[in-house]
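Re: that backbone. Tokens:
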């Protein structure tokens, strides 16, 4: 009985993908978030085919994390001598 339940869960997990999860498939953060922890979702909602129970947290945090990472990349770029005409001039010049 428990082996059957485990195999059913394994099959469900194997076909689970963020592009197929209702509520996640159109989310702009899906390739960063990935739908969160599949097992946490299964534990909370009884299925892998659901948004993460922490979805609201991810949607609040991910824009900040991405912005901070972008600022870090810009600083590293400038430290290496890039962006002598300003980073925006470099980016808009298409080089
Ligand atoms: S942020 Fe929410 S909706 Fe978007 S991929 Fe993650 S869990 Fe899914």
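Recovered sequence:
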């Amino acid at each position: 009985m428990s082996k059957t339940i485990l195999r059913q869960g394994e099959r469900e997990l194997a076909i689970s993908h963020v592009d197929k999860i209702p509520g996640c498939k159109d989310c702009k953060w899906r390739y960063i978030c990935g739908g969160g922890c599949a097992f946490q979702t299964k534990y909370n909602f009884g299925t892998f085919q659901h948004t993460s129970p922490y979805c609201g947290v991810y949607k609040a945090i991910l824009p900040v994390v991405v912005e901070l990472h972008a600022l870090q990349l810009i600083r590293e770029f400038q430290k290496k001598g890039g962006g002598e005409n300003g980073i925006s001039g470099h980016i808009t010049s298409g080089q």
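The mean pLDDT is 86. DSSP finds five helices and no strands in the chain.
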